[in-house]
Amino acid sequence: MSDIGSGDEGISSQKYHGQGMDAGGNNFDSGQQPQEQELATKMLQIQSKRFYLDVKQNRRGRFIKVAEIGADGRRSQIFLAMSTAAEFRDHLSSFSDYYSSLGPPNPENVPDDGKLKSEMMLKDNRRYYLDLKENSRGRFLRVSQTITRGGPRSQIALPAQGMIEFRDALTDLLDDFGTDDGGYKGELPEGRHLRVDNKNFYFDIGQNNRGIYMKVSEVVPSLQVKSNFRTAITVPEKCWSRFRDIMAEYCDKMGRAQLSPPTHQGGSGSGGRAGSAQPAREMDTFGGNGASRI
Question: Fewer Cβ atoms within 10 Å of its own Cβ: the N or the C terminal residue of the chain?
Fold first, then answer.
């Protein structure tokens, strides 16, 4: 590790690569990444670390990838939408001013968790935690990126002495490329929760390189293990209306069936139970801007 640990030991030593992400700050690791174009890059040497700030663009818009390379070659990285990068730049000024007001490090006057000042940024389904910390190796700003309701955590650790240099480099990139993320400009709806018997259903709206989607997660307590069992489906926004119509149709059919008296079918033939046969399924495929039935 480098002089100030980033906490990202899970990333092995390797050359610095690009990785896909959309303009909203979301990684897409589906294996079919849309083409990306690197518009600009800056490299900063701060103590024993190198930091790369890359402005990238894909069909969803522009974003900034920040990669930290330690002295031993270990790499960690975070992704920032352009608007989030502008907010981060402003926080860097605030953190730098606070750092300048601190006296020399005093091991006897450090909080138990080492945190001297903290802030949080929110962008779609991602949270960014900014913590100015102090340990035996000095003071540093840890920036952690997380996804709501679980998901991988990534973080970088910026030596406190380099916050101004980092802010200035970020400002130069934002001056050149602006703070517009591209993609959907509105605020995404908040998540919803539904409990049925011992099951919990979570409805979360997100955005990635393919557009807006709804993730429906089912959480069921497991009797075999202490943790809960979770499954999820993802529904693209372009088929929400049809998805709703199908659900409404089933609700209507079941409502009528429960109000109607049971029918008894007799006669010879197959010998099977009445009502056991099910009609063939209708399938909807979605491509482009509408639905087509097959």
Answer: C
